[in-house]
Amino acid sequence: MALHLERLRDASLWIRIAVLSAVTAGVLAASILAAWAVSGVPGVVAATSAALACWLGACAALVAGERFRAPRMAIMGFFAGMVFRIGAPLGLVLYARLSGGALLDFGLLYYLLVFYAVTLAVEIAVSLPKGSASDLLGRKP
Questions:
Q1: Domain locations in the chain as residue ranges
Q2: Which of 15, 33, 46, 123 has the largest count of CB atoms under 10 Å?
Q3: 10-27: buried (b, 16+ CB within 10 Å) or exposed (e) per residue?
């Protein structure tokens, strides 16, 4: 598995976005089944909205990380990615709250928690540089 992560970290931005999309779609499929069983169509809309918001934020964060990939720009990429990653889900929650809160009643916040964690984990897995922490810090084992 580590070998595959090494390849993904060196892969193009589009391949990393495709991996993020595939994992998000897989989790969405499972979430749609659960949402349908619990809330019907409104639950499916809530789950899909949460998945889309988190996926868009994670894709924008990957693009920001790619843009600021140079070592001197890494902290800028981190902060830009953080703004995108949390901005899209928070924007969805704000919209849902201001439009009457119907999506919130059908579990939008729970679905956001699931998809935020999944997209963040995948984004980190495909974005971290190769090597161990001691290699990155310049220490020899």
A1: 2-129
A2: 46
A3: eeeeeebbebbeebbeeb
Q: What is the pLDDT of residues 35-94, one digit of tens each?
A: 999 999 999 999 999 999 999 999 999 998 888 877 788 788 888 889 999 999 999 999
Alpha helices in 1-141 (DSSP H): 2-10, 13-39, 41-67, 74-98, 102-105, 108-127, 133-137
Q: DSSP for 92-130?
A: HHHHHHHTTSHHHHTTHHHHHHHHHHHHHHHHHHHHSPS
> Which residues lie closer than 8 Å to 46 by C-beta, 6 or more apart?
35, 39, 103, 106, 107, 108, 111
Interior angle at CA 69, CA 64 and CA 71, nearest 5? 135
- pLDDT band at residue 133 using 50, 70 and 90 as cut-offs: very low
Using CA atoms, how far residue 113 sits from 4, 50, 59, 118, in Å, is 27, 9, 17, 9
Q: From CA 79, how far away is CA 71, in angstroms rounded?
A: 14
